[in-house]
Design brief:
The strands form 2 sheets. A 9-stranded mixed β-sheet has the order 5-4-1-8-9-10-11-12-13, sandwiched between helices. A 4-stranded mixed β-sheet has the order 3-2-6-7. Strand 12 and strand 13 form a beta hairpin. The protein contains 11 helices and 13 strands. The protein is of the alpha/beta class. The two termini are 25 Å apart. Helix 1 packs across helix 10, helix 8 packs across helix 9 and helix 10 packs antiparallel against helix 11.
Length: 319
């Protein structure tokens, strides 16, 4: 029996994240919880918990950390048949949870297994990508290495040739590359993308614009169908050629750890679109799904197993 096509394929570097268990700065933290983290794996876990079929293309080390990542993703129901081993260590990050202010993050991913992802790895997964309902890429993967940029480009070409819609989360990381490098690499991807997610700063960076309005206009002119503007506590907007849709933030939740909220938002949006919800409803549900993750420590531990509606728990994953 032929397996059903995947709802979404994504590619990137899954990491082991050591996250402080107490709300303390890094210099005072002496206990860390172990988590599987990374923008693409966070999104994959979110979609898998919402009943979507997801495949992950990437590399991990042939070590215990890589085995833990593979086991964790597989246990979430994610297809890891294209998550291969590399002769390099699995990527690692350490993150604290200070009271107030941004968390400190220490990366150990230079020359990591994930940074060795290349176009040949994508070629091996080309059939899976070509048959999927969507491909999701992020700016993080492009920042890791030239071979990772080649891998993203190959995946985009494969999806475009097969008519597979591409979603793109800018996810700019200043620790990984400069504004100039990011703009030069990411801007050429715009004409191939159906949906783009980003903050005001991220959209302006990729579009080369001075304002969110100009950035949205430029992206729509380049061929993007939907531009999703994430505004944190101010909610979110979705822009198309027909105008803007807007949704306020979700209901208040006790915020414990904000890292992973953007990935949860994208997962909630994509899950809702796969169920053919209208854009306003997608925004509402994406905001609500992001709210499920910030009340717990870790990038994905709090992710719900049902797509919320209007900020309230729901069971309408299927309809």
């Amino acid at each position: 029996m032929t397996a059903a096509p995947h709802d979404l394929v994504t590619l990137g570097e899954p990491l082991i994240g050591l996250v402080g268990t107490a709300p303390l700065p890094m210099v005072m933290t002496d206990a860390f919880g172990v988590h599987v983290v990374g923008a693409e794996s966070n999104l994959a876990i979110g979609l898998a918990r919402l009943g979507r079929r997801v495949a992950y293309v990437g590399k991990v080390g042939a070590d215990a950390l890589g085995a833990r990542i593979r086991r964790t993703l597989a246990a979430e129901g994610i297809d890891v048949s294209h998550l291969t081993d590399a002769d390099a260590p699995t990527g690692l990050l350490l993150r604290d949870r200070p009271i107030g202010g941004a968390p400190e993050v220490i990366y150990r991913r230079t020359q990591s297994a994930g940074s060795l992802l290349c176009a040949q790895d994508v070629a091996a997964a080309a059939d899976v990508i070509a048959k999927a309902r969507g491909l999701h890429i992020t700016g993080v993967t492009c920042a890791l290495s030239s071979s990772c940029r080649d891998a993203v480009s190959a995946a985009v070409r494969t999806a475009s040739a097969a008519g597979v819609p591409i979603s793109f989360d800018v996810n700019y990381r200043s620790r990984l590359w400069t504004h100039e490098e990011a703009a030069a690499t990411l801007r050429p991807l715009l004409p191939h993308c159906h949906t783009i997610f980003g903050s005001v700063d991220e959209l302006c960076l990729v579009a080369g614009s001075a304002s969110a309005t100009d950035a949205v206009r430029s992206m729509l002119h380049a061929g993007v169908q939907v531009v999703v503007l994430k505004m944190g506590e101010a909610g979110a907007q979705a822009w198309t050629a027909d105008g803007a849709h807007e949704a306020a933030r979700a209901v208040d939740v006790p915020v414990v750890d904000v890292v992973g909220a953007g990935d949860a938002f994208a997962a909630g949006w994509l899950a809702a679109r796969l169920l053919d919800y209208d854009l306003s409803d997608c925004l509402t549900r994406a905001n609500a799904y992001a709210a499920t993750v910030v009340a717990t420590v870790g990038d994905t531990d709090g992710l719900a197993f049902a797509l919320p509606g209007a900020g309230l728990p729901g069971a309408d994953v299927q309809r």
